[in-house]
């Protein structure tokens, strides 16, 4: 299918509450609609007011524009993204209201999206530091063998429907070593 199918599926995320779908800047009337507009932009891979800004900076913009500055509904939208089974991951951070990771960038172009991740093995997903940290937490967090971490990352990615990049294990093992040195 085409990119249009992806847009329809992203828009469906906001339909759990009818007034949450904000497609145009002109529809922004408060902090929630401001947040939803820019969240949708991020899900579609577009630049948005949240890119490169910290949570306090965004809160200041929202407070100025609408008198409101909370992001509580983002956790509801994050749940809806997860239920949608789109190849997108939303991370809610301490310093940012959210970070959107699009695991299959080909869905942003007219092409092969049909409602499921369609990654080719050479175009697959390379696990991130967050994937490694999640795996380590799930495994108990202390003195874990690297092979166990890699196995857990693989299991987690498969459960999300992600096709791993060929050679991901070696690349991720090197990254694990580098991340351990940074800690």
What would you say this structure looks like, in words?
With 183 residues, the chain is mainly alpha-helical. The chain has 2 domains: 3-108, no CATH class; 121-182, no CATH class. The chain has helices at residues 3-13, 31-43, 55-66, 72-84, 129-138, 146-159, 168-182; strands at residues 88-91, 99-102. Strand 1 and strand 2 form a beta hairpin. The longest helix has 15 residues, at 168-182. It is globular. It starts with a helix and ends with a helix.
Main beta-sheet annotation: 2 strands, antiparallel
Number of discrete domains: 2
Report the helical percentage.
40-55%
Q: How far is the first residue's CA from the last residue's CA?
A: 44 Å
Task: Please name the defining characteristics of this protein.
2 domains; mainly alpha; 183 residues; 2 strands; globular; single chain; two-stranded antiparallel sheet; 4% strand
What is the topology?
Elements: H1 3-13, H2 31-43, H3 55-66, H4 72-84, E1 88-91, E2 99-102, H5 129-138, H6 146-159, H7 168-182
Antiparallel strand pairs: 1-2
Helix pairs in contact: 1-4, 5-6
Summed up:
The protein is mainly alpha-helical and 183 residues long. It is 48% helix and 4% strand.
